[in-house]
């Protein structure tokens, strides 16, 4: 047949067969012997007689460890998402320079916004008569970093660790055996600000909604959850049960972040019916691929998710495939049909395999919860298939 790589006529040689029913175990053995598959067509390239040699590459996912290059690519992906996405293309160097310029601009905006927030809070605290506030107490408000913003409610945009140095200073000059703790001082700060929130013009001007205490830090909720230049603060991830216990102990939020739903505009664009929720979505989630949430340049959160489903035709997937083939491979749109897409990427000879029906306990334990078969993994950015 003609070669799909170099375009040579009748220069690609292979042995093949149509598989009407093929177990996943048998196909795994064929892959180990250099066989490949396109739909129901299974073939083994004749490397000695073909113009372009094709080699089957397999990876034992249970032993996978990301290389330095792969970790670098992941960091660049995260930076790209946090920058809001650079759709202009260009070289890696150009993209990196553009991201750095945007980061500098956002940093300047964040500094100005946090300074205004600090000034408004300082004005309220300087007039407060709460005896729990140390003499000469000053507050410093900082915007969150993207990593902490991913763990906190969407309305939290600022935090202040000022209770810690204030407590340390109080300990140095304390004459009693029980100087105030950071949590004690932070609670006084939050209470004073919350009392003044309704009437103070300075707090209203910067969008202050309320202050909460979490582990000695004062977290600030902002009306609408959007502040120019806001970015998020570093907070190490903890187990859900630990996070709830810690939140109850310190007064923090135990609900965690909000997960954005698929926008209605996306559903209307592709004519999608309402997707089934709950157990079906949980069953399709890809093991080891947890949703990644980022704070974008415009202050909004964006989420990259991956879901897995058994191979089946989907109009949304076909439209993306058609767009890719025309843009990357130069195929003519009229040559890309739904039937050819089904033959190539949907049809398969594998019967549905349930791990509970494995012939022995070892096979059942080794099988993934979804069983074996042909699957599609769909990556979505804020609900949009990419």
From TrEMBL:
Highest rank taxon of the organism: Eukaryota
Any GO BP annotation: arginyl-tRNA aminoacylation
Region (Disordered): 230-259
InterPro entries with a match to the protein in the record: Arg-tRNA-P_Trfase_1_euk, Arg-tRNA-synth_N, N-end_Aminoacyl_Trfase, N-end_Aminoacyl_Trfase_C, N-end_Aminoacyl_Trfase_N
GO molecular function, one term: arginyl-tRNA--protein transferase activity
E.C. numbers: 2.3.2.8
Record key words, sorted: Acyltransferase, Transferase, Ubl conjugation pathway
Domain Arginyl tRNA synthetase N-terminal stretches: 115-222
Keyword Transferase annotated: yes
Pfam families: ATE_C, ATE_N
Cellular component, GO, one term: cytoplasm
First-tier enzyme category under EC: transferase
Similarity remark: Belongs to the R-transferase family.
Protein name: arginyltransferase
Species, as recorded: Tetraselmis chuii
